[in-house]
């Protein structure tokens, strides 16, 4: 029995609140690596900055082990985020947690941007950095929706324990899929990893996976349908080389096939690309003045923790330059 | 200490140091047929030892059946939070609040202690309109980082309206119950055994589902 203290807890310090009367220099939306590093850099520049986040830590929290962040050989996603948030907390940045964004409003002739939350709160700021990250991509096959929460899962560390001793399937061939399979193999009886093409995961992870004797790998295999009764019982797949269709049995299906940007609410305001990512320039600037974006929600290639953090730093510095040109 | 290392104990001491009023944890255990009761009791004893304003009352599900009934406790281990006047605040943790659930435990203790977080006016008005009894079950696992957020919201709703009761249920400890409610993803939220959703959704979603139970 251990304790995983929340990242938002900042003992010994009064929690800083976001003030609806203040016009902030910068409001950061998102509490993952991109958002936190934006806030860190901005605060160090002396900007009046606040963070609004649905959850502090972002997607990294769902990662059981991070082994490619420079300076840290191996630690859990949560441990890494704890280091990030502790660093930001040192600088007393106000953080509004568990809040979701409704809209960012821009008014003609005004340099002030209005940030509106789903709960109704409104904040004013001269600039915004959008770092809302991404969410798990769905397979988009029949049965996936029907069996969501009835076997189909999107968070292996959350739901893995509920499948102890059973047979499960992991969909996907990237790092998250292979990591999920490695983690699940410790709990469940058998893992079958199914992917439509070749592995995209790092070789070091594939090597770890191939050492496990309760993991079966099916590549070049397309998932056609999730099947079941009250709960899912398996998936119908097609071998892409032979054309043969067959059923892989499993009580759970962990979908780890990548991510989709959390950009829906910006579709009218900002330019998005064909993947619905926010289009940014070299400085992280979006198509609207005073609004920047960082991390997984942008069209920057290769979504990695270190790149999101780097994006955040870049945006904060760009915002600092921008604010020098704004009439306050 | 068995469960808290020095660093965590110190952090918790700092957090619980901010409590305003006294809070009592009424813990129900049972001698037989309860794998986690002893550990839960030891864990909460350690928590209480780093929180001067938090006291632990050890109760037995059978021996103290009158109190169990008063608080609607039917399982063990189960704990309810009582305010400074020993009033039952309609919030319950079924299963040990360790792992990630330490955070929902902290948040609920702070709320009952009087360090209340204000909700937006629109939300408060919607909560006030709930007149028929509402029971919210939040199924969690201790390894789930999103789960405490859902538990906190359910507990907050219960604290705001006397018609609402909210229970955290640790899915592995209460395996039969998770089976009964078809829990295979967490957090899973079940309202009045009738409406359900998965995930740490915004308060608006909780309210939309709760409002469905209020229709005549």
Write a brief structural summary:
The complex is a heterodimer of chains A (328) and B (216). Chain A is α/β, with parallel strands linked by helices and 328 residues long.
Defining traits:
heterodimer, A: 328 residues, alpha/beta, FAD/NAD(P)-binding domain, 5-stranded parallel beta sheet, 25% strand, B: 216 residues, Glutaredoxin, 8-stranded mixed beta sheet, 37% helix
Account of the protein in words:
The complex is a heterodimer of chains A (328) and B (216). Chain A is α/β, with parallel strands linked by helices. Chain A has two domains: 179 residues, FAD/NAD(P)-binding domain (3-Layer(bba) Sandwich); 104 residues, FAD/NAD(P)-binding domain, CATH 3.50.50.60. Chain A is built from six helices and 19 strands. A five-stranded parallel β-sheet of chain A has the order 4-3-2-8-19, covered by helices on one side. Chain A has a five-stranded parallel β-sheet with strand order 10-17-11-12-13, covered by helices on one side. In chain A, helix 5 links the parallel strand 12 and strand 13. The longest helix of chain A has 19 residues. Chain B has 216 residues and is of the alpha/beta class. Chain B has two domains: 107 residues, Glutaredoxin (3-Layer(aba) Sandwich), CATH 3.40.30; 92 residues, Glutaredoxin, CATH 3.40.30.10. Helix content of chain B is 37%, strand content 22%. Chain B is built from eight helices and eight strands. An eight-stranded mixed β-sheet of chain B has the order 2-1-3-4-6-5-7-8, covered by helices on one side. In chain B, helix 4 packs parallel to helix 6. The longest helix of chain B has 14 residues. Chain B is globular, with a radius of gyration of 16 Å. The model of chain B has no long low-confidence stretch (mean pLDDT 94). Chains A and B meet through strand 10 and helix 3 of A and helix 1, helix 4, helix 5 and helix 6 of B.
């Amino acid at each position: 029995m251990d304790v995983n203290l929340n990242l938002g807890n900042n003992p010994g310090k009064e929690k800083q609140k976001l003030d609806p009367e203040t016009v902030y220099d910068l409001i950061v939306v998102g509490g993952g690596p991109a958002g936190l590093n934006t806030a860190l850099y901005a605060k160090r520049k002396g900007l009046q900055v606040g963070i609004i986040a649905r959850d502090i830590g972002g997607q990294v929290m769902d990662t059981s082990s991070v082994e490619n962040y420079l300076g840290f050989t191996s630690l859990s996603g949560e441990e890494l985020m704890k280091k990030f948030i502790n660093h930001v907390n040192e600088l007393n940045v106000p953080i509004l947690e568990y809040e979701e964004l409704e809209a960012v409003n821009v008014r003609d002739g005004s340099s002030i941007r209005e940030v509106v939350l789903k709960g109704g709160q409104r904040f004013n700021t001269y600039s915004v950095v959008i770092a809302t990250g991404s969410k798990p991509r769905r397979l988009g096959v029949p049965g996936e929706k029907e069996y969501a929460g009835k076997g189909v899962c999107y968070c292996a560390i959350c739901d893995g324990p509920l499948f102890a001793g059973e047979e499960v399937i992991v969909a996907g061939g990237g790092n998250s899929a292979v990591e999920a399979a490695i983690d699940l193999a410790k709990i469940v009886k058998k893992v079958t990893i199914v992917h439509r093409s070749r592995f995209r995961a790092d070789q070091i992870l594939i090597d770890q996976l191939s050492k496990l004797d309760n993991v079966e790998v099916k590549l070049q295999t397309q998932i056609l349908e999730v099947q079941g009764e009250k709960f899912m019982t398996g998936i119908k797949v097609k071998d892409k080389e032979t054309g043969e269709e067959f059923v892989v049995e499993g009580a759970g299906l962990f979908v780890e096939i990548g991510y989709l940007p959390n950009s829906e609410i910006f579709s009218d305001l900002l330019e998005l690309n064909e993947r619905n990512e926010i289009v940014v320039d070299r400085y992280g600037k979006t198509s609207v003045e005073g609004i920047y974006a960082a991390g997984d929600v942008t069209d920057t290639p290769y979504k990695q923790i270190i790149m999101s953090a780097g994006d955040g730093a870049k945006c904060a510095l760009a915002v600092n330059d921008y604010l020098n040109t704004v009439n306050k | 200490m068995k469960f808290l290392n020095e660093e965590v104990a110190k952090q918790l001491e700092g957090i619980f140091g901010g409590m305003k009023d006294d809070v009592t944890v009424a813990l129900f255990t049972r001698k037989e047929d309860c794998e986690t009761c002893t550990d839960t009791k030891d864990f909460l004893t350690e928590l209480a030892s780093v929180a001067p304003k938090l006291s632990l009352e050890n109760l037995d599900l059978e021996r103290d059946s009158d109190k169990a009934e008063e608080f609607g406790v039917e399982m063990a281990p189960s704990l309810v939070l009582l305010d400074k006047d020993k009033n039952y605040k309609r919030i319950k943790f079924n299963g040990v609040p360790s792992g990630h659930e330490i955070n929902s435990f902290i948040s609920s203790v702070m709320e009952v202690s009087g360090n209340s977080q204000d909700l937006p006016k629109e939300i408060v008005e919607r909560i006030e309109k709930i007149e028929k009894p509402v029971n919210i079950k939040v199924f969690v696992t201790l390894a789930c980082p999103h789960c405490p957020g859902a538990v906190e919201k359910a507990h907050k709703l219960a604290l705001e309206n006397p018609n609402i009761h909210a229970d955290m249920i640790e899915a592995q400890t209460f395996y039969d119950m998770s089976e009964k409610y078809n829990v295979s993803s967490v957090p899973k939220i079940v309202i009045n055994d009738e409406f359900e959703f998965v995930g740490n959704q915004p308060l608006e979603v909780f309210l939309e589902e709760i409002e469905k139970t209020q229709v005549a």
